[in-house]
User: Fold this.
Amino acid sequence: MVNIRVPIHCITIVLPQKQTMQNNTDKQISLDSRYLRMAQIWAENSYCKRRQVGAIIVKDKMIISDGYNGTPVGFENICEDDNDHTKPYVLHAEANAITKVAQSNNSSSGATLYVTTSPCIECSKLIIQSGIKRVVFGEYYRITDGVELLKRAGIECVQLKTIGDNVEMVII
Ligand SMILES: [Zn+2]
Assistant:
């Protein structure tokens, strides 16, 4: 069991998954949980064995980018070395999604990033510099310094957890 230090000062909102949308908060949770589920499906593209992570970047209700963890373009699709350690040049899902925007005509400024696992510190630096203003994630990565850095930069961080029939939104 890994001990995960969850940043304090959280607000938790619980919404039944099938509840009809009543107000803007409910609507936001419903949208967020759908985009996060898309990121979860996108993670299935990853050929990494240790952990599969998916990310979606949404701006003005449009998906402008996506990514999953994997090796750079042109490298063989194997993420782990002979000792089952992740190769140092494997890109995280967030880094792949952000760099994909760089190749497009879109701008990530003001966008929301949906990612299945909370960002590490390296990806958090990229998130800050790319102008992303909101991060929604599913589970915590074993180290939470990335989320702490995002908070320091004034980026809204939200954890969405599905517990039974409820979606629990934790505003960090
Ligand atoms: Zn990362």
In short: The helical segments are 24-43, 93-102, 121-129, 145-152. The mean pLDDT is 90.
